[in-house]
Write a structure and sequence with these properties.
Order of helices and strands: EHHEEHEEHEEHEEEEEEEHH
Number of strands: 14
Shape: globular
Strand content: 15-25%
Radius of gyration: 19 Å
Low-confidence stretches: none
Oligomer: single chain
Distance between the termini: 70 Å
């Protein structure tokens, strides 16, 4: 006889980046982060903030897999959050029901989360606005999920077409969400100075009246 699998499996350890690494990426526009990554790393363009004015965030991902039409694993994440964490919850693109609402997001905020990102749907937009936690999703629907599992917490996932592991840094703003892989954080931070300098130089030239970029002539 095959024994029933546990409803939610939790990874043995949940890594997180250093405080200095997080500080270096705080407030950085997602476009700059993508440039520092070499042109990629952003989630599917449809993943956008539910409340546009509540979009900016930066923090380490804590992943979870909540199967279609279920969010038991999202509740399970709450016990493993540390202040500053971002819940990265995949519903595998399922849009038949919401993966969370304002009450679960309120609990996440109370546990120290700084954002919630999913490739599924959410609900209770007025309540989400009141909670004030940046929430990115594929869409909004009033339909409710079940809480039966199975699911996982802390294991690698694919979120909106991008691989995400616990400890990766997620950066979000009104343009979307970018994933900085754990092993590339220092590389990205180091490249940001060049990205900022290039952006500032071109911005100044455009404001001064530049009509054709130099690279076009080359």
């Amino acid at each position: 006889m095959i024994e029933d699998a546990p409803k939610v499996r939790v990874a043995a350890s949940l890594r997180r980046p250093r405080a200095t690494q997080l500080a270096a990426l705080q407030g950085v526009p997602t476009g700059f982060v993508v440039d520092a990554l070499g042109g990629g790393g952003g989630l599917d363009y449809r993943i956008k903030p539910v409340v546009p004015e509540q979009a900016a965030f930066c923090g380490p991902a804590v992943t979870c897999v909540a199967g279609p039409a279920d969010n038991l694993a999202v509740f399970a994440v709450l016990e493993h959050l540390q202040p500053g964490d971002v819940i990265a919850a995949t519903a595998a693109g399922h849009t038949g029901c919401a993966i969370t609402g304002d009450l679960l997001l309120g609990m996440a905020r109370n546990c120290g989360a700084v954002a919630f990102v999913t490739d599924g749907c959410v609900r209770d937009v007025p309540g989400i606005r009141s909670v004030g936690l940046p929430c990115f999703a594929l869409g909004v629907t009033p339909n409710s999920p079940a809480r039966e599992g199975p699911g996982t917490v802390g294991f690698p996932i694919v979120l909106a077409g991008v691989a995400v592991a616990t400890g990766d840094i997620l950066v979000g703003d009104q343009d979307g969400v970018v994933v900085v892989p754990f092993d590339r954080i220092d590389e990205v931070v180091e490249r940001l100075d060049k990205v900022r300098a290039a952006e500032a130089d071109l911005d100044a030239k455009v404001k001064a009246g530049m009509r054709v970029p130099p690279f076009l002539k080359r």
